[in-house]
Amino acid sequence: MRIDYDSLRTANAIPCAASMIETFRAIGYNIETAVADIIDNSISANAKNVWVTRHWHGDKSFITIKDDGCGMNSQEIIDAMRPGSHSPLEERSKTDLGRFGLGLKTASFSQCRKLTVLSKKSGYHSAYWTWDLDYVAQTNEWTLLQWIPEYLDESVDDIEHGTLVIWSDLDKVVRKGTSENDINAKEKFSNSLDRVRQHIAMTFHRFLEEKSLKIFWCGHEINPWNPFCISESKTQSRPTEGIVGGIKLKGYVLPHKSAFSSEKAYNVAEGINGWPAQQGFYVYRGKRLLLAGDWLGLFRKEEHYKLVRIQVDIPNTLDSEWQIDIKKIKGVSSYTMPEST
Ligand SMILES: Nc1ncnc2c1ncn2[C@@H]1O[C@H](COP(=O)(O)OP(=O)(O)OP(=O)(O)O)[C@@H](O)[C@H]1O
Ligand SMILES: [Mg+2]
Asked: Are residues 250 and 214 in the same domain?
């Protein structure tokens, strides 16, 4: 049935900036998935190097994610800062890890109240723009500020092109009023960011292994964490199986503790969440790991399956079938596997 829109009365129902932007904060990222979403953008911008740095200054702490990707000029930064800068229906190139035109904003706001993007594109001067949630709350306008944190000690002057994303006023990570000398708060900050480093090593391990990308953590290069322990001689792998729609499966059974090359290797193989939790499917969209250790509702996690890890590769053309959500993770757990061909 076609509706004749021209014959109908209309009324504007523009989202209220102050409350809408606060709602973006509740999408359900944690700091690990939020940082990974920013790195996705660096990869889509063809970066070869990404530098993630934490700066401890009590409640003035900030986190920076810098890349040497294509960069943006001033107008492109403004477009990138706009919620919904791309339609989810748009066809994307195979290497583009984006989908919704939201990740930069939603991932950042989940952790901080000020998101600054400083960027430099070949042939242009560097430019910067900031979303400041306090300013949006005050004005109730979708308005960016040309502001940069005055204490920032990084820039894009040392790269030909690239982008520096700065998260400041990290209210979800460091409580307001926390002093720089608060040792407990500093340790908590450091520990939560240590998980970020491990998450990056896992999520982007394929990029790091093939050396198409280097990621530095506070100046140190991150080593990849491969869930399938392919360098262990006792790891058993099954042949790759193709199932409908270009999806590929490959199963691995990791060695028993006593058959690992060393105790250290066994401990590293355990992963962020520990042995029993890391069993299950590892779902990749392109080379990017979306979901690590989940049976997608097919089985329960059991102690005797703890050595089983199965690689699942899905192309980004199947996003809607896999119910890829804004964080690119949650929806997949409710997916029913198609039958084998
Ligand atoms: N580091 C970057 N370098 C160059 N361009 C960037 C960078 N980060 C963001 N952009 C531009 O900003 C746009 C918006 O980014 P955002 O993360 O909000 O959405 P997306 O990546 O398109 O989709 P998704 O919501 O799935 O992440 C990107 O499509 C890209 O054009
Ligand atoms: Mg993105």
From this structure: no
Does ligand 1 come within 6 angstroms of the Cβ of 226? Answer: no
Q: Is 6 among the domain residues?
A: no
Which residue, 185, 187, 119, 123, is CA-closest to 156?
119
Asked whether residue 87 carries a pLDDT value surpassing 70, the answer given is: no
Q: Which atom of ligand 1 is nearest to the CA of 99?
A: 26
Q: Answer whether residue 9 is part of any domain.
A: no
Q: Quote the pTM value.
A: 0.90
Q: What range does the domain containing 111 cover? A: 17-221
CATH of the domain at 129: 3.30.565.10
pLDDT classification of 315: cutoffs 50, 70, 90: confident
pLDDT tens for 63-79 read 999 999 999 999 999 99
Across the chain, how many H-helices and E-strands are there? 8, 13
Give whichever of 232-236, 283-287, 298-302 has the largest mean pLDDT: 232-236
Ligand 1 mutation pick, 104, 110, 120, max ligand atoms within 8 A of CB: 104
Where do the DSSP E strands lie in 133-273?
A: 162-168, 214-217, 220-221, 236-237, 241-243, 247-253
Residue that terminates a domain, selected from 193, 221, 249: 221
Tokens 């952790």 belong to: 111
Q: What is the mean pLDDT of residues 79-86?
A: 86
- Residues 40 and 187 grouped into a single domain: yes
- Ligand 1 pocket mutation, candidates 40, 81, 86, criterion most atoms within 8 A of CB: 86
69 lines ligand 1 (CB under 6 A): yes
Ligand 1 binding pocket includes 105 (Cβ within 6 Å) = yes
Of all ligands present, the nearest one to the C-alpha of 131 is: 1
Into how many domains does the chain fold?
A: 2
30 and 110 belong to one structural domain = yes
Note whether 110 and 162 are same-domain residues. yes
Rounded Cα distance between 71 and 75, Å, is 12
Task: Looking at the structure, tell me whether residues 58 and 180 fall in a common domain.
Answer: yes
CA 137 to centroid of ligand 1, rounded, Å: 24
